[in-house]
Structures are given as structure tokens and as C-alpha cells.
Amino acid sequence: YDEIRLVLGDQLNAAHSWYKTKDTKVLYVIAELKQEQEYVTHHIQKVQAFFLAMEKFASALKEAGHHVLYLTLDDTEKYADLPDMVNQLIDQYLPKQFCYQQPDEYRLSEQLKNMTINCDKSCVDTEHFYLRHDELSKYFKKDTGHRLEAFYRKLRSQFNVLMDEGEPEGGKWNYDSSNRNKLKKDDLKAVPSPLLFSNDVSDINKRIQRHKIKTMGTGGDTLLWPVTRTQTRELLNFFCKYCLPKFGEFQDAMTAKLPDKQWSLYHSRISFALNSKIVSPAQVVNHAIEAYRQNSSTISIEQIEGFVRQILGWREFVRGIYWLNMPDYKTKNALEASRPLPDFYWTGKTKMNCLSNAISQSLEYAYAHHIQRLMVTGNFALLIGADPDQVDLWYLGIYIDAIEWVEMPNTRGMSQFADGGIVGSKAYASSGNYIQKMTDYCSDCHYDVKQKTSNDSCPFNSLYWHFMTQHQEKFGNNPRNAMVYKNWDKRSDMEKQEVLERAEWVLHNLDAL
Ligand code: FAD
Ligand code: SF4
User: Fold this and answer.
1) Contact 55/9 with Cβ under 8 angstroms?
2) Which of 23, 30, 50, 364 is deepest in the core (most CB within 10 A)?
3) What is residue 5's predicted lDDT score, i.e. its pLDDT?
4) Which atom of ligand 1 is nearest to the CA of 403?
5) Is the CB of residue 200 less than 8 Å from the CB of residue 56?
6) Fold type of domain 133-199+227-325
């Protein structure tokens, strides 16, 4: 072969220009590697999904006439790591050139960049995102607070997405205020059951066992996540038909009372297919906009704008934050948080109904929607002052879509405020009040969401005040917190002391909650 081209597990982009021509002198290498299973403990469904999607991608490339070497864990166990594998393959096939696509993860990017090999080496863009990797520094600066809204508007204009002669379609850039409702009792029956796939992963399970790969969560011999382009298209069609009409409206809702376990509500569950690059963000956005244009009586501008904002906005935004701030971002701990995460994050066994629901669902499906991640598990970890390294590892392991470039700015930045305000201007801290407003969890909880100090008081309530007073010096100057501190100051010293004492008790008894 003249050239070896490496395809990483999250680079399954069949539309890449690499594949436009068939060249029998080019060998594509796709490999299951132990190093990728061991940098964090992954959810078993995440390992299954990546391996199966990689296998299917390799088969599709072969069918299209490309030369592909697919290496399973059995084949790669003899290699120490990725550079060792590449070096040995180069010795074996003697190519003139080794080429790879720019990894999205800093760790892999450094590993490939710093590797010395016996032939020419080159790196190309993944051709997946709206912005090329080498353009990011035009939009983002290191250690600088950036806000989504300005970036999102810039990209909407630049890529002419939902625009009408230079103005945002519908007249507004942002429809958040009409979205984000609670699911009421009468709404529950109408929530669609998720479209699930039945992919056979029995052979992959055997490999996972044979190589003693440590995993978390549950997973059987069939995988419900989409692993091919065809399945992804089916999921996207399903989403546009049944979920998009209510996507924005119920984007933040959470409930434990669904009659048919419709666990993903109106969300798309497209994140694995996107992050493994089976589908591109532009394909998803254009498909959804097309559905909106053809069904404007059922899909309103509020719904489509809410969806586009997540992908063209948030997804591209966190990627820029990640790349301009790595590797320092990984060590940021602005609130000097150091507490271990309680054991129930790995079992779901807690009397707090909101956490028990969000964690159990995550263990069962490798999935929770954004607000479950941000306002339940993330909020609790923030309030107890959990070590951001541990919090990152938990999120990086448990979710089907977790890859560091997107996981870390969301977790360490948006959720834990450990970046001191690079991603968001304010910590997403809240008492039980928010959870009660957005969910039906509290009515069936062991704890009383209205109480702050009693033995059965909702732990979020006292922890919230403990957290806000502990960081008053940092947060007090932010005008968005002015009301919070005014409220606190109105209370008697006695009341303040009781709340803080309850919080101390909670912090010392996390595993008993
Ligand atoms: P939908 O609600 O249907 O949204 C559509 C798509 O928009 C998603 O698939 C995703 O690609 C994109 N999107 C939405 N919100 C965000 C966001 N904040 N950042 C980036 N993209 C977004 N997302 C990941 O893809 N990987 C992660 O590891 C990850 N970790 C997170 C950790 C925390 C603490 C938080 C608060 C959020 C995290 N998110 C992560 C963002 C978001 O929760 C998931 O993208 C979303 O829940 C995936 O489900 P979905 O496909 O049904 O999303
Ligand atoms: Fe969660 Fe508190 Fe509500 Fe219980 S009462 S579900 S712990 S917010």
C-alpha cells in the first residue's frame, strides 16, 4: 500500500472526501483498542455501540470497494497502544504515507501528533462540523468567557440557517421564553415511546468479557442505539414526525410517571450518531428544517429554533471552548471542590427521587436528557462541592454520547462552574424548588421539598444555601445573584444557622440520603 489511513471510532463519516475515490493503494485501518476502553470506565452500551458502529462502517467501506483492515480487540491485544499499532502496521505494509483525521479529543490528538514513524505523516480535517478545526481560533480565545447567544447568531447568519433576508426567521433569534413547560398529567399519555433498534451485540459482549474490559451500567445482547446511516435516518425521521412538534415545549421537562416508560420524552437521541459522525450536524439540522417547512401546521418556529440552537449553537460552541482551552481546562477547579461523589451515582440507590430516577435511567439506557444531567445529577454534585475530576469521569463514562470535547465543557464548565465562567456567566445551582417546578418527582419523594431544616427536608434546599453562602465572595458581584443574597439576608440568624447545620449534616451523611 502507498498509504495507510487511520479511522478512529468516532470518525465514521462516510461523506468524507477520503472516500470519494476508490484507490487500491490505500488501506483504511479501523481498530478496537484497549487504551480506548481503559482511559475511563465506560457504560457497556457505549462500548457495544462504538464497536458495532465501527464494524458496520468497515463493512460499508469494503462493500463500496475500499480496502479496509478491521482489527478487533483480539487482533490488537499484542500492541501496547495506538502509536505502537501504527508503527507495527507501517513496518508490515511499508506505506509512503500515514494519514489520519484530526481527533476531536486532545489526548488522541497529542498522541498522534507526537508519534514518530518511519514514513510521512499528515492530518486532515474530519469534515464533520460546521466549523473546521483550524477555524476555531477565529471564534474563541483562551481563558476568555464566551456566551452562546453571540456565537449562535453569528453561525446562523454565516450558514444562512433559519434566516429570512438577513433577519432571523419568525422575527426572533431566541424562543426560550415560550418553551420549557412542565409535563402535566394530561400530557403524559401523548409522549411517544422511543424508537429502539435491536442490534445483535452478542459477539461484542464475548470480546468485552474475554478481554476483561471493565464497564458500568446494564446492557444485554441487543443494543437499542442506532449504529448505521440507515438506522440514523430512521431515528431522525421518527424524531421529526413524533418529537419535533413538541421538542422545545417540553425540552426541560422531567417526569417519573410515564405510562409506557417513554424515557427520552421529546428528545432526539441523535447524540451518539452525531458524535460518532455517522451523521453530520448540517444533515440533522437541514433534515429537521425540511420537516418544519413541510409541516408548519404541526411544527412551530419555537420548536425548530430550539432544536437548531442545540446543534448549530451549543454543540459547535462547546467544541470551540474545549480546543482553545485544552489542556488547562482539564485541571480547572475555580470553586476548589474536592469531595468524592457519593456511591449512589453508581447504583441509583438513594431516597432522593429525582436523583434515583435520573441515575437509574442513565445506568439502564446510558442516556439522560440535558436537564436531568444539568439540574439533577450536575446540580447535586455542584452543591456538595464534588471534585470536578470525579464528576468528569462519571459523565465521561456513563453516557452513550460522552466524548471529552463535548462532555468536559458541559460538565466542568456549564454544570460545575469549575472553569470560573468561561462557558456560562453563572453557576447552575438550584434548590429543590426548581425540580419541583419542572417535574413530578417531589410528590413521591421521601423528602419534603418545602422544608429546609427538618430531618426530612429536601437536601437540595439546605445545600443550596450552604453553597451560595460559601461562595458569596465569588458570586456576590454578579447582578444575576443579587436577589438571592438579598433573600438570604432577610432571614434571622437563627434560621440561617439551622439551614447551614442541616446542610453540614447532609454533607457528612451523603451515602445515607
Ligand atoms: P436533544 O435534546 O435531542 O438535542 C439534540 C442535539 O443537540 C444533541 O444530540 C446534541 O448533539 C446537541 N446538544 C444539545 N445540548 C447540547 C450541549 N449542551 N452541548 C453540546 N451539544 C448539545 N452531550 C454530548 O453529546 N456528549 C456529552 O458527553 C455530554 N455531556 C454532558 C454533560 C452534562 C453535565 C450536561 C449538562 C450536558 C451534556 N451533554 C453532552 C449535552 C446534552 O445533555 C446531550 O447532548 C443530550 O442530552 C443528548 O441527547 P439527545 O440527542 O436526545 O439531545
Ligand atoms: Fe429531589 Fe428534593 Fe424533590 Fe426529593 S424533594 S425529588 S430530593 S428535589
Assistant:
1) no
2) 50
3) 98
4) 28
5) no
6) 1.25.40
